[in-house]
Amino acid sequence: MENNEIKGYVKNGYKQIEVLTDKENGPVMVRNNETQKFWVRKEYPVFLADSLATLQKIEHRNLPKIEEIVVDGDRIFLYEEYIHGKTLSELIQSSDSMDGQAILELALSVLDSVEKLHGFGLIHRDIKPSNIMLTNDQVVKVIDFDAVRRINGNKENDTVQLGTVGFAAPEQFGFAESDARSDLYSLGVVMNICSTKDYPKNHLSEDLLIREIIIKATRIDPEDRYQTANEMREAIIYQLDQLEQSSESVDSSVSENEGFQDWVEVEEVQQPVEKKQRKNVFSISGVIGGISFLMKYIPGFRTKQLWKMFVAVTGYVFIGMLINNEATAGNSYEYRGRWIVDSFFLFIVPILLYANFLDFHRNIPFLASTSVIKKILGYVFLTMAWFILLLFYTLFLRDLLG
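^ that's the sequence the OP posted. Answer follows.
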């Protein structure tokens, strides 16, 4: 049904009240003639019938209620809950940037909604600020299912390539089949927008509470991202727990009653946190927190996957024993010192290069690509760089150091 229909037009037992956007075939506020309740009617292509039927079965606090689905030829009319509130896009435009804690809490609600979708075999594929609403009752709602699809797992790429440029994961544009990790990518971009009002590729958030989460969520290769909504949720909860532990005596919470508009400045939260951290620098919790912080930068420990950590520990122990045995075999301090430096270029440098230390691969075109061939070429160039560095050290630096 077109948006230029007259007010009061009746279709499928619903009376048209108001066109909500200027978009052709966009959402329309309607009223059920029998119950007199207000709903939003949206038009979808018929190929989404199966996905929308599944969506109707889902009841969740952070998703709109689907009242009815009507198939009319090659079109589907979906009648969903009318939400009183504002979109996250509107709130961001009309206020200062959100602080890290508010962003984490918002992300948890979005994760709850997409995890529910994933549990029913659906992915949203268009998570962005304009599709996230905050109701007048301060409830986060994920809306708009134009790009929703069922997870297949056996396709080379999506049959219908949809999503918003800047928020959609690379695989949504034909590189591979999208899945649950595609929604997590989009959420990572949304988190960065909330913090900087810009995309992470242009201006990555400097807020330490969310920076690492954004980096991991928006990695080019889906294998390098959070693999499930629950995994991303655990990372967010960990950050919130750390904040709570380090700021027990500081009221650094954001009042939800202000509709996410009265953001607390990041500096107001961080200053007392840093002061308390210095005070408890030698506490057990501080030591554990420090170890956890370092693990984010040690190859093999960043993903917290047990098999990777086991391989990393085994490798580090082996290299450590090799370096120690050779160093102790020498008769002079000069020999031992040179061997330690040799070991750095022989063992440590390739580990840093190949294990993507500080996520530098995302800044190298070939290594950041989802193409297997380009990735192989990227590692070939990486090997050449290591060889050239090793050759330079052997020919010029080694004698100078020893």
